[in-house]
C-alpha cells in the first residue's frame, strides 16, 4: 500500500487469482536419420528442423532423381504423413562408411564447442523450433541387437581398501571394440556390485575391465571379468536419456525375423519409455515397386493422429494403417485365441500389425519393468500432466508465499484436473497442500510443496463376454402373440 498522499481517484491492478492451465502439446514427432541428398541449407546436419505436416518441406530431403539412395529419412517421413498431418522435428546426420560408424553418428553426443550431435540434438529442439518432440524414432537404426558387445560383467575378487561410492568402470583392449560402459558400487571398501549400462560394439575379444584411479588406493585389487555377446540396441539405449528429459516415448523397430528374436529384443530393456513394434511393413515406392519399410513411422504417425483426433490419453492400438500393402512376415490373428502369433507377441510387450478389416496396429504395452507403467497411454498421461503443470506455473516462481498464493495454485490445478476428468483423460484427480512438508523452515527457505493425485484412463485391452445357457426361455415358444 502506497504511503504517498493523494486527493482523488486511483487505479491498482490486483494480480491474485488462479490461472488457466493449457494442455501441453503431445503429438510432435522427433525423427533422426540420414538424407545425403538433402538441401543442406534447409536441413543442416545435427540441427532440429521443424516440418509442419508438409510434404513440400520434406521434399527438400530428396534428390530429383529416384535412382539414388535418399537415406532413411524421406521414406520414413512419407510413411508418417500417410497416417497423419503431423508436426515433425527432423535431425539429419551424415552418412558413414560402415554400420558401427553410422551408429556412432546417430548416437552423437556433443562437439568441442558443446553443440549437441545426433540424438542429443532433440534436447535443443524446443529452443530452436519452439516445439518439443514427444515421440522419438530412428528408423533403420533401432531394429538390430548388437552381436559383439559387453553383455555381462562379473565380480571375482571384490578387492579391499577402495573408497565407498559409485564409479565408472574402464574398459581397455577387446580387439578394437568401443562404447561399453558400466558402473561399480563400492561398499565397505569392496566392490559390492557392477552393472553394464552400455554394451558397446565391435569387441572381438573380452576387454579388460577395472575401476578408475578415483576409486581410491586399494590394498587388494578387485577382479572384474567381461563377457562378449549379444547386447541391446545401442541407439535405443542412448535414446532413453533424452526421452526421459523430454518426457517423450521411443518407438523402436523389432528385428522382423522371428517371434523369438522380437521377444529377446523386448527383454533387453525395462523402460516404460519404449514401445516396440514388430514386424516391418511393405509399401509401394515412387516407381511402383513393393518395398520393405520400417514400422516405427507407422506407429508414430498413428500416435500423432490419435492425439489430434481423440486425445493423448487414447491408445494407438487398433487404429487402421494407411499406405501399406502388407507386413514383412505373416502375423496370424484370431480374436479370443491366446495362442495366435499376435497375442504371443503382445504378451511379451511387443506391439505388432494385424490384418483385420484392413491392417491395424495391435498392442498397448511398453517395455516397462514396473507394471504400473505397462500401458503406453498411461505413461503419456503422466508426462503430459506433468509438463502442463510446469509450463503453466512460470508465473508462480519467485512470488511471495502467501495464503492467497497457495489457494491460487491449488485452485488452478484442481480446475485443470476437473477439466481432464470431464474430457475423459483421467477418472479424477485432486491437488492439496501437505502441512507436514510445508514447514516454517521450508517456507523460509523459499520452498513450497503442492501434492496432487490422479487416476488415468486405462485401455480396455481384454473384453470378456460370459455366456450362460439356460432352459428358462423354452416356455416362450408356447406363448400366444397379441394376448
- Strand order, main sheet: write it out: 2-3-1-6-14-15-19-20
Shape: globular
Structural class: alpha+beta
- Percent in helix: 10-25%
CA-CA gap between termini:
85 Å
CATH C-level name of the largest domain:
Alpha Beta
* CATH-derived topology of the largest domain: Rossmann fold
What's the alpha carbon Rg, rounded to whole Å?
Answer: 27 Å
| The number of domains | 3
Descriptive tags:
about 475 residues, alpha+beta, Rossmann fold, 3 domains, 8-stranded mixed β-sheet, 4-stranded antiparallel β-sheet, about 25% helix, about 25% strand, globular, Tail_sheath_C, Phage tail sheath protein
Task: Explain what the structure shows.
The protein is built from 11 helices and 22 strands. β16 (281-284) and β17 form a beta hairpin. The protein has 3 domains: 29-143 and 235-373, Rossmann fold (3-Layer(aba) Sandwich); 146-231, no CATH class; 399-483, no CATH class. The model has no long low-confidence stretch (mean pLDDT 91). The longest helix has 21 residues, at 403-423. The chain has 483 residues and is α+β, with helices and mostly antiparallel strands. Pfam families: Phage_sheath_1 (PF04984), Phage_sheath_1C (PF17482). InterPro entries: Phage_sheath_subtilisin, Tail_sheath_C, Tail_sheath_structural. Residues 231-367 form the Tail sheath protein subtilisin-like domain. Belongs to the myoviridae tail sheath protein family.
Amino acid at each position: 500500500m502506497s504511503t504517498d498522499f493523494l486527493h482523488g481517484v486511483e487505479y491498482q491492478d490486483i494480480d491474485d487469482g488462479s490461472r488457466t492451465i493449457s494442455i501441453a502439446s503431445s503429438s510432435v514427432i522427433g525423427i533422426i536419420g540420414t538424407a545425403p541428398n538433402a538441401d543442406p541449407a534447409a536441413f543442416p546436419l545435427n540441427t532440429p528442423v521443424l516440418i509442419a505436416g508438409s510434404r513440400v518441406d520434406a521434399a527438400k530431403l530428396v534428390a530429383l532423381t529416384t535412382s539414388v539412395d535418399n537415406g532413411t529419412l524421406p521414406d520414413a517421413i512419407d510413411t508418417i504423413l500417410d497416417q497423419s498431418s503431423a508436426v515433425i522435428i527432423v535431425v539429419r546426420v551424415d552418412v558413414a562408411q560402415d554400420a558401427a560408424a553410422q551408429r556412432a553418428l546417430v548416437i552423437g553426443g556433443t562437439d568441442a564447442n558443446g553443440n549437441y550431435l545426433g540424438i542429443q540434438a532433440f534436447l535443443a529442439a524446443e529452443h530452436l523450433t519452439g516445439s518439443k518432440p514427444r515421440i522419438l524414432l530412428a528408423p533403420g537404426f533401432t531394429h538390430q541387437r548388437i552381436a559383439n558387445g559387453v553383455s555381462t560383467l562379473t565380480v571375482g575378487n571384490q578387492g579391499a581398501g577402495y573408497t565407498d561410492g559409485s564409479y565408472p568402470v574402464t574398459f581397455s583392449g577387446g580387439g578394437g571394440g568401443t562404447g561399453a560402459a558400466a558402473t561399480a558400487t563400492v561398499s565397505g571398501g569392496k566392490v559390492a556390485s557392477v552393472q553394464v549400462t552400455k554394451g558397446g560394439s565391435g569387441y572381438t575379444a573380452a576387454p579388460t575391465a577395472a575401476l578408475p584411479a578415483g576409486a581410491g588406493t586399494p590394498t587388494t585389487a578387485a577382479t572384474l571379468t567381461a563377457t562378449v555377446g549379444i547386447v541391446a540396441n545401442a541407439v535405443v539405449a542412448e535414446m532413453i536419456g533424452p526421452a526421459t528429459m523430454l518426457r517423450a516415448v521411443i518407438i523402436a523397430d523389432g528385428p522382423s525375423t522371428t517371434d523369438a528374436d522380437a521377444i529377446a529384443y523386448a527383454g533387453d530393456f525395462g523402460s516404460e519409455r519404449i514401445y516396440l513394434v514388430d514386424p516391418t511393413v511393405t509399401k509401394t515406392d515412387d516407381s511402383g515397386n513393393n518395398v520393405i519399410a520400417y514400422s516405427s513411422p507407422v506407429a508414430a504417425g498413428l500416435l500423432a493422429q490419435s492425439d489430434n483426433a481423440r486425445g493423448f490419453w487414447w491408445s494407438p492400438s487398433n487404429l487402421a494403417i494407411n499406405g501399406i500393402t502388407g507386413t514383412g512376415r505373416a502375423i496370424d490373428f484370431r480374436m479370443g485365441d491366446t495362442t495366435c502369433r499376435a497375442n504371443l507377441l503382445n504378451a511379451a510387450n511387443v506391439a505388432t500389425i494385424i490384418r483385420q478389416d484392413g491392417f491395424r496396429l495391435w498392442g498397448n504395452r511398453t517395455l516397462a519393468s514396473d507394471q504400473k507403467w505397462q500401458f503406453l497411454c498411461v505413461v503419456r498421461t503422466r508426462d503430459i500432466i506433468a509438463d502442463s503443470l510446469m509450463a503453466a506455473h512460470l508465473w508462480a516462481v519467485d512470488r511471495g508465499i502467501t495464503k492467497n498464493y497457495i489457494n491460487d495454485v491449488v485452485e488452478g490445478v484442481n480446475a485443470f484436473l476437473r477439466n481432464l476428468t470431464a474430457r475423459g483423460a483421467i477418472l479424477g484427480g485432486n491437488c492439496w497442500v501437505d502441512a507436514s512438508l510445508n514447514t516454517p523452515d521450508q517456507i523460509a527457505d523459499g520452498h513450497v510443496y503442492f501434492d496432487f493425485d490422479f487416476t488415468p484412463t486405462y485401455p480396455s485391452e481384454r473384453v470378456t463376454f460370459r455366456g450362460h445357457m439356460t432352459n428358462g426361455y423354452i416356455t416362450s415358444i408356447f406363448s400366444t402373440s397379441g394376448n
